[in-house]
Amino acid sequence: MMLLNSSRTTVNRIGSIISKTTFIRLNSSESRPLPPVQTPESLNILGNTYKTDEWTNATPTILSLTDRKLHKQPNHPLGILRNLIETKFEGMGYTYYNDFEPVVSTHENFDILGFPEDHPGRSKTDTYYINQSTLLRTHTSAHEAECFKTCKTPGYFITADVYRRDAIDRTHYPAFHQIEGARTWSRNEHGNNIVEVIRADLEALPKPNIVVENPSPVFHVDNPKQDNMSEVETELIAAHLKRTIEILVEDIFNRAKEVAIAAGSTDPDLHAPLKARWIEAYFPWTSPSWEIEVWWKGEWLEMCGCGIVKQNVLQNAGITDRIGWAFGIGLERTAMLLFGIPDIRLFWSQDERFLNQFEAGKINNFKPYSKYPGTVRDVAFWLPHVEKDGDLLHENDLTEMVRSIAGDLVENVSLHDEFVHPKTGKKSQCYRINYQSMDRSLTNSEINEYQDQVRQQLSEKYNVELLPRVFSSSLSQTRSIRPSLNTFNWSSTSTTVSQSRAGHQWAPRFKNVRKQHKGRVPVRTGGSLKGSAVSMGEYGLRLKSDGARLAAIQLKEADNTIMRIIRPIAGPKLFRMVHCNIAVAKKGNETRMGKGKGAFDFWACRVPTGKIVFELGGPNLHERVAREAFRLASDKLPGVYEIVKRGDLPKIGFQQVAAPVKRNFIEEQMKTPSNKKLANIIKSKDPEILKYKK
Ligand code: PHE
């Protein structure tokens, strides 16, 4: 369905529809019970009460938009645009409907229009359900049947608010407006003359001055004509439909040109005739179907979907003698270019500085009243392990959740990074949230509070394992560590400082740094093999000489050296196995008591003998390339290094030892249930318990 405003809805979303029984739980194979989702027993929308069920996914934020009726406000850009279109077709036999309420049945929205059962538009990730059989209309076509039935004129226009679960950014918002137009001719009334009547109606339409590409034939096997219409009838109706839309497009874009010229644009296209093209489309209730695209500011803009109404849709509405067309056009996009409104969320603004700029019947360029800086936050997590393929957490679910927490302060939510662990197959994701307000500055503490809620809800509702936050001083943003690099447990924070230094990639990205003694580099004396064998990639660079303190700046140099070599080859991946979490002060903290109170100068880490500093892995990595990269990198680092391969034995200090035997504590414990020590080890590995370990 739905091509307007939602070009990102693609069929492959079918695969990502989450569990049928609940809209928020995941079909996690883990046995840990998920906290129940709180949906009220019933919802009151515009004076009617609806029972909720496991399909309910309309949020209070979205429901609060249903009574705004922006298209009916005469001084609102959407109201002005509606008026303009209605005036354009005044006296041409159209009835205007502007009062349809947004809650409709699945029958009206989908079934009557012939949407197949598995159409992605029906999925809970794309549509707001009130309950299994009721939803917030996703398009104005939901009222087509009713209007065909009741309308007394040959044509009609429906303007209304429509709702689709979608990402939020400057051009997408989960609520927007559409105008639906339709026009039919009655066989009963015109009899054999119907062709002449349509032809006359077509000829009576003004000829718009635009250059139109109309490459494909009116109908063919893939965009077929209907059986109850002759070829001539189909051609004439198609021509009438296209001409009507071209008139609309010409009117809108000529006005947009005037506004752009008045605003000082020197684009040469603005003085050339308007260009548009027809392309074929598919809608379940029209055939043949098309879309029109308009050349605007250097790109093709998709304006509206349309087609010849299928016979059975009219028959379902009890109309057997009429044939005709329908189209649907999104108002926001059009209004954005007409009024120069840069952000779709502004339409919902209740700020006087926005509302007072517009006046009924007038098109003027929007003047930004202020620009406040935005702020970015990342949230990264491991998804719970599931047996089956498929996304556990749809981008729309996350967007929705963030929106329900921070409302319109959310400028944009996007999947920033994704990582599948090569061994465990576990998947981690990093989402980037852009917070921005149109009319005020945001404070860090306020955004951090929202971000805390986002994290909390993510872990409660989706059972994800959150990755700790990190801090990038160069961008002054709180970020999460890239999961792929996170082989180190950062979570210990006791005494904390918030100080920023050296904003490069090797500086720690967490905000709260534990102040600690620079300390001695540990010497491995027998206990730990940690990090001494290749674990992530295929080759590793291991410290061979005495333990060293490596500064972030040195590691960065070595990192750059390796990247310079592997970057041109697609595939190889660098794993950074040590992390700089020690704030070193060049003078002072050696002699001071405690953990050092003053400022510090650089970041460093302690690397004991036998620890791997870098690993290289991934496809297309030749051993000689890895060796060369490591050889050059080790020149940049203090100490002597050796190059090891996957499978090489781990080391304790200088001593190579046999690979440790992996113990299966659970099995051991089952054999000796009285062994308390084993029970404690198992407990200490439980992720739930780890959360509380500071
Ligand atoms: N309802 C369609 C949409 O939302 C547009 C459309 C309307 C297409 C009428 C054909 C006929 O994309």
From TrEMBL:
Broad class of where this protein is predominantly found: mitochondrion
GO molecular function: ATP binding; phenylalanine-tRNA ligase activity; rRNA binding; structural constituent of ribosome; tRNA binding
Keyword Mitochondrion found: yes
The name this protein goes by in its record: Phenylalanine--tRNA ligase, mitochondrial
PANTHER family named among the record's database cross-references: PHENYLALANINE--TRNA LIGASE, MITOCHONDRIAL, PHENYLALANYL-TRNA SYNTHETASE
Keyword vocabulary terms for this entry: Aminoacyl-tRNA synthetase, ATP-binding, Ligase, Mitochondrion, Nucleotide-binding, Protein biosynthesis, Ribonucleoprotein, Ribosomal protein, Transit peptide
Homology family: Belongs to the universal ribosomal protein uL16 family.
One GO cellular component term: mitochondrial matrix
Job description of the protein: Is responsible for the charging of tRNA(Phe) with phenylalanine in mitochondrial translation.
Source organism superkingdom: Eukaryota
Start and end residues of each Aminoacyl-transfer RNA synthetases class-II family profile domain: 160-368
Record bears the keyword Chloroplast: no
